[in-house]
């Protein structure tokens, strides 16, 4: 039997999906699979997919004829093509028109839109779900959504991402000093500064802990279109919050925190939640998407958009060291039971083999 050939297609390349593709590419190459990664050049500069042993081809995040033609050429001869995200799947479906290579889509995250954009998003989800031979999703609600959009085969799939601090050694004192939280509690949040990540609600909650002594410092790592408006609120309301932009070594920041906060409207297998529980950092998160499945009883869950509940939970944990210790211990136990990178790669490879086998039989492979 000849070597299995796969193409991994990324669109904009969120941190979670890009890290997942990097892990997947490395694992597949190690198992003798020929892997090509197609993504915008900027994503490769951040993640260096060629270092995994995969071949990298720059393909812009566009659906114009030139971009689709480049992707079509990259997929020539592939046994399985795997698109990560809705836009990547829809564009890849165009590129594969008339081809026999099966398309796998991993639906990494849920998107939101209002007005006319909501209908466009619905059509995009429907097109992507129906084009894929198999849709993989990290949470049960996304599996259900894929089926509602017409997916022929939608499955819950493990999607492990390697820890951000691989050596396991974090100089917490140094990290806290750099952030300005030596003698005060450090609260850590991470994510793109966009409405669906709930940072506006987080700033609402921050007003409630200004009266604590010492005053906790909330640090938010990430960039996005809401940065200016969030910074304006922090200044005008004199909130104990620091926006530090995109940072490498986010795992070290989380490991040095007293609490990790995840106020999002939706999350699948949140990298922040995974870092927090692995590191034994108590997590306060919204009870949305795949978060309850991921964390079990090892985190405090609050309703999305409820600043009062979020603030009350944070203040309660800061005043209860025993509760924080219990959550830290429960988090490590919960994390130990998550699927590993090997589990993730083995599952994906089994899907590839399942789809490629009929084609191999037809070609006499």
Automatic annotation (TrEMBL):
Ranges where the Glycosyl transferase family domain occurs: 177-332
One protein family per Pfam: Glyco_trans_4_4
Gene3D superfamilies hit by this protein: Glycogen Phosphorylase B
Top-level taxon: Bacteria
Assigned keywords, A-Z: Glycosyltransferase, Transferase
GO biological process, one term: carbohydrate derivative biosynthetic process
Example of a GO MF term: glycosyltransferase activity
Domain (Glycosyltransferase subfamily 4-like N-terminal) ranges: 16-157
InterPro entries: Glyco_trans_1, Glyco_trans_4-like_N, Glycosyltransferase_grp1
The protein, known as: Glycosyltransferase
Species in which this protein is naturally found: Streptomyces globisporus
């Amino acid at each position: 039997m000849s070597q299995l050939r796969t193409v991994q297609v990324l669109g904009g390349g969120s941190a979670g999906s890009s890290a997942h593709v990097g892990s997947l590419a490395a694992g597949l190459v190690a198992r003798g699979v020929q892997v090509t990664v197609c993504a915008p050049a900027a994503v490769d500069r951040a993640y260096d997919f060629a270092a995994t042993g995969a071949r990298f081809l720059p393909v812009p995040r566009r659906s114009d004829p030139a971009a689709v033609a480049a992707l079509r050429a990259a997929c020539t001869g592939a046994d399985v093509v795997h698109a990560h995200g809705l836009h990547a799947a829809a564009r890849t479906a165009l590129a594969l028109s008339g081809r026999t290579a099966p398309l796998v889509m991993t639906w990494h995250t849920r998107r939101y839109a209002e007005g006319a954009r909501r209908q466009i998003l619905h059509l995009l989800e429907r097109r992507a779900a129906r084009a894929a031979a198999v849709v993989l999703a990290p949470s049960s609600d996304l599996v259900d959504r894929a089926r509602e959009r017409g997916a022929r085969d939608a499955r819950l799939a493990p999607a492990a991402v390697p820890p951000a601090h691989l050596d396991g050694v974090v100089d917490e004192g140094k990290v806290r000093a750099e952030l300005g939280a030596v003698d005060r509690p450090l609260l850590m949040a991470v994510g793109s500064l966009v409405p669906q990540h709930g940072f506006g609600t987080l700033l609402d909650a921050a007003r409630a802990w200004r009266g604590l002594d010492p005053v906790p410092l909330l640090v938010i790592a990430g960039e996005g279109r809401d940065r200016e408006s969030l910074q304006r609120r922090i200044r005008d309301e004199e909130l104990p919050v620091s926006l530090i932009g995109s940072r490498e070594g986010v795992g070290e920041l989380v490991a040095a925190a007293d609490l990790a906060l995840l106020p999002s409207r939706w999350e699948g297998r949140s990298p922040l939640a995974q870092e927090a529980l692995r590191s034994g950092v108590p997590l306060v998160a919204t009870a949305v998407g795949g978060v309850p499945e991921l964390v079990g009883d090892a985190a405090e869950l609050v309703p999305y958009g409820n600043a009062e509940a979020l603030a009350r939970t944070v203040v309660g944990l800061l005043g209860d060291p025993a509760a924080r210790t219990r959550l830290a211990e429960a988090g490590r136990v919960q994390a130990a039971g998550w699927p590993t990178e090997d589990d993730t790669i083995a599952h994906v490879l089994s899907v590839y083999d399942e789809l490629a086998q009929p084609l191999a039989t037809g070609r006499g492979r």
